């Protein structure tokens, strides 16, 4: 069967306010100092299948950003959501576009805004999974060893092996509380990295079973894209909560790779420092380790260390390193509409 890849490039994360919203989606951050996260996701997808079989799902407000960031993306491979309805709908929309080309295809789903290194780890895992017995009947997730307890990720308990590098999933829990995250980490659970692999018939079956509203309005057997009214009527639900947590025929492929969702300004600056390409230094007097990002400006910091100053238009963020998780609260107070 042919393999298609779907890159999810939607959302408007408030964690990177003031560079947030539809004009500044997270996937356009350059976490390696050179390439956007979207470009890196495109490279991972193209390492798994032909570029002509890579589709991107995005919203109308970000359509032009995606086409500029990915000039090699064929116009016909850009799927534009009529409304923002979370990842279950976005994946179903992309799968519908694939089904109109090949209703028996296999599909790999990738987020546009995370890092996974080395990229070859995903390519090898996809090959192992597709070669395993019973592949076409199962839904596959991908996991990495959790380096620390973390409430922002889903956790996967690997079960019985079915092939080299592929196991049944004993348990899948999306974003647990702190106590559960510690328990899962102690037990050696894997982090869910937000990638999924399945045959279209298997996905169609599970969608009908667990998300009947999505299945009825976004049936993969359609000969045309769903109308905007059908899409807008869907309840927003993530694929993790709506489907993955409920699937009985769930398998996991463990990757020997580093995963980072670059979830905060702290995480981004720390990574850029480690790579030797930190943000621009702010002028500092009586302090050190201060940086400036966003629109060009002369930024001076007096008497403080470890600050990041981000300017975008009439919005300015002054962040003390280590407090990046609070940026979402600032965005809320500033009138932004936060999205995960």
Helix and strand arrangement:
Layout: E1 3-8, H1 37-48, E2 54-59, H2 63-69, E3 78-81, H3 86-99, E4 106-111, E5 115-117, H4 120-131, E6 139-145, E7 155-163, E8 166-173, H5 178-186, E9 190-199, H6 200-210, H7 212-217, H8 228-232, H9 239-242, E10 250-254, E11 258-260, H10 265-274, E12 280-281, E13 283-285, E14 291-294, E15 300-302, E16 307-312, E17 315-320, H11 327-333
Parallel strand pairs: 1-2, 1-4, 2-3, 6-10, 13-15, 14-16
Antiparallel strand pairs: 4-9, 5-11, 6-9, 7-8, 7-9, 8-10, 12-14, 16-17
Helix pairs in contact: 1-4
Task: Write a concise synopsis of the structure shown.
The protein is α/β, with parallel strands linked by helices. It is 29% helix and 27% strand. A five-stranded mixed barrel has the order 6-9-7-8-10. A four-stranded mixed sheet has the order 12-14-16-17, with no helix packed on it. It has a two-stranded antiparallel sheet with strand order 5-11.
Structure, described:
- Helices cover 29% and strands 27% of the residues.
- The chain has 340 residues and is an alpha/beta fold.
- The protein has two domains: 258 residues, Alpha-Beta Complex (Spore Coat Polysaccharide Biosynthesis Protein SpsA, Chain A); 69 residues, no CATH class.
- The strands form four sheets. Strands 6-9-7-8-10 form a five-stranded mixed beta barrel. Strands 12-14-16-17 form a four-stranded mixed beta sheet, with no helix packed on it.
- A hairpin with a 2-residue loop joins β7 and β8.
- α1 runs parallel beside α4.
- The mean pLDDT is 93.
- Shape, principal axes of CA atoms: globular
- In what order do the strands lie side by side in the largest sheet? 6-9-7-8-10
Q: Structural class, please? A: alpha/beta
Write the CATH fold name of the largest domain. Spore Coat Polysaccharide Biosynthesis Protein SpsA, Chain A
Tally of individual domains: 2
Per DSSP E runs of 2 or more residues, the count of β-strands stands at 17
Question: In the CATH hierarchy, what is the class of the largest domain?
Answer: Alpha Beta
Strand content: 25-35%
Strand count, sense and barrel status of the largest sheet are: 5 strands, mixed, barrel
CATH level 4 superfamily of the largest domain:
Spore Coat Polysaccharide Biosynthesis Protein SpsA, Chain A
> Helix count, per DSSP?
11
- Oligomerization state: single chain
Calculate the mean pLDDT score and round it: 93
């Amino acid at each position: 069967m042919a393999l298609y890849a779907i890159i999810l490039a939607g959302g408007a994360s408030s964690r990177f306010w003031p560079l947030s919203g539809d004009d500044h989606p997270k996937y356009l951050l350059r976490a390696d100092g050179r390439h956007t996260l979207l470009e890196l996701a495109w490279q991972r997808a193209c390492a798994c299948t032909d570029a002509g079989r890579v589709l991107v799902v995005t919203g109308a407000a970000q359509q032009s950003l995606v086409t500029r960031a990915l000039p090699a993306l064929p116009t016909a491979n850009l799927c534009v959501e009529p409304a923002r309805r979370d990842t279950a709908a976005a994946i179903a929309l992309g799968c519908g576009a694939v089904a109109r080309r090949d209703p028996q295809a296999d599909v790999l789903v990738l987020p546009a805004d995370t890092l996974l290194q080395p990229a070859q780890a995903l390519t090898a895992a996809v090959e192992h999974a597709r070669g395993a017995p019973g592949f076409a009947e199962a839904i596959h997730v991908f996991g990495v060893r959790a380096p620390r307890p973390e409430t922002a990720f889903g956790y996967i308990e690997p079960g019985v092996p079915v092939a080299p590098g592929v196991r049944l999933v004993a348990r899948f829990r999306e974003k647990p509380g702190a106590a559960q995250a510690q328990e899962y980490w102690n037990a050696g659970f894997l982090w869910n990295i937000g990638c999924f692999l399945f045959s279209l018939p298997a996905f169609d079956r599970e969608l009908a079973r667990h998300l009947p509203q999505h299945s009825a309005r976004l049936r993969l057997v359609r000969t045309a894209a769903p109308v905007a009214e059908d899409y807008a009527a869907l309840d927003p639900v993530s694929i993790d909560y709506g489907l993955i947590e409920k699937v009985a025929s769930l398998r996991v492929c463990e990757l020997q790779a580093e995963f980072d969702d670059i979830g905060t300004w702290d995480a981004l600056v720390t990574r850029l420092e480690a790579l030797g390409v930190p943000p621009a230094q702010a002028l500092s007097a009586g302090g050190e380790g201060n940086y400036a990002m966003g629109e060009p400006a002369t930024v001076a910091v007096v008497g403080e260390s470890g600050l990041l100053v981000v300017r975008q238009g009439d919005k300015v963020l002054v962040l003390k390193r280590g407090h990046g998780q609070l940026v979402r609260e600032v965005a809320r107070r500033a009138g932004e509409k936060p999205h995960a």
